[in-house]
Amino acid sequence: MTELQQRLATGKGKFTPLYEELDTGPVSYEDSISPEFFEAEREAVFRRSWLYVGRSERLPRPGTFFTRELNGLASIVVSRRKDGVVNAFHNVCAHRGNKVVWQEHPQEESKGSCREFACKYHGWRYGLDGRVTHVTNEEEFFGLDKDALRMPPVHCEEFAGFIFVNLADDPVPLRTYLGDRLLELEAYPFDKMTQHYGFSAPIRGNWKLAVDSVCEWYHPPYVHARFIDKDIAKAEKMVPPPDSYHYDLFTPHMLTSVPGPPPLPPREPGTAGAAARDQKWVYRLFRAGLFGPDDVPDIGPLPEFLNKGKIKSWGNDQFWLFPNLSVQIWARGFYITYTYWPEAVDKHTYDIDLYFVPPKNAQERLAQELIVDSTIEFAMQDVNTIEATQQGLSTRANRQFHLSDQELLIRKFHKTVRDTVAAHQARDAKES
Predict the structure, then answer these.
(1) How confident is the model at residue 221 (pLDDT cuts 50, 70, 90)?
(2) Cβ proximity of 195 and 368 under 8 Å
(3) The pTM is what?
(4) What letters, b where the CB count within 10 A reaches 16 and e where it falls short, cover 395-416?
(5) Distance (Å, rounded) from C-alpha 52 to C-alpha 120?
(6) Which 3 state secondary structure label does DSSP give 26?
(7) Of all helices (H) and strands (E), which one includes residue 259?
(8) Does the pLDDT value for residue 2 go beyond 90?
(9) What is the Cα–Cα distance from 286 to 293, expressed in whole angstroms?
(10) Which of 51, 351, 368, 412 could form a disulfide with 339 if both were Cys (CB 3.0 to 4.6 A apart)?
(11) How far apart are CA 166 and CA 153, in angstroms?
(12) Which of 5-19, 23-37, 190-204 comes out lowest in average pLDDT?
């Protein structure tokens, strides 16, 4: 064990046996390659869970809106009404079923500001609450009850500036769904971090395999060796020991806390050393890297709900909001959201959004962009592995797989998905 690893080690021992609901045996990945399970999962999980669709900063004033295409599930409009309330509705006209809100290409998402939404097909109009306000040539219809017509509403609630929707008929309230541990997030100053960078990528792999890739730190010396050290033997010695992490499972959600390096000390301009084609020199020059800026913004004292595991050199807390959202809060004053949208059993869309305090000068802006580029590169290295895993699993040459102690979140996550599907199917069977 290196000096770094000795400093971070806690001697806690193994974590998985602490959770009685988790066994330690081999696992199946049939839930990631079975088309039948994918359809069951879509019904049980995605049609009945609260789904994050965007930050409230996207709706800065009444009349602003954005659309979300939830592949295979719904097309929805999210808008801020005149009274300031955020609401959502299906993006479907009550006349002939045309999609109402879109720009040049109906399959693409859109955003903007308006007083009413107008259907491009026959000119029907809708208010910011989705209700019909105008029917073209209304007198030509038969017994039309205009007051009852609307784009169908979708359950929509806000929490800490995060906007969620639920496609179920009668879901539990969002705050009940999140539970006490996640409600603590309200104490974090998300509203100070309005500088946004985001990207989205189609992935040829099951969405759960992508979640898995961010749930453990067993792989970095191999998948991300270029970030750590191209000599894998040296890279292995630079990652924190397994007992230095912290885990918390609060079904259906979960959390992990991760160590990270402290910021570099201040330095005088021009003291970064001779220019080099080397990532470490670039990080030193711009005073930023994968773990955040070295010049940490002042966002006030960190709320007590962070780093409850008392990690010695805390890097971030990653909150997993079931089913498909991760909110990663970093010690250096920024946060990232990861969202996974399934499209098929072997395909999904991966959204990554980074939020910072607005930069005060060009140096801070460049530092943020370096963090963004590093995160994208890191994520894309994971993507290659996700697609390779999907290809390997799909052969079914192996049907049982072995997870280590530091992969307990993977074990827990797949169990929660399978349990949710089984419970839904049991209710359906009982009702029928």
Answers:
(1) confident
(2) yes
(3) 0.95
(4) eeeeeeeebebbbbbbbbbbbb
(5) 28
(6) coil
(7) strand 253-259
(8) no
(9) 9
(10) 351
(11) 10
(12) 5-19
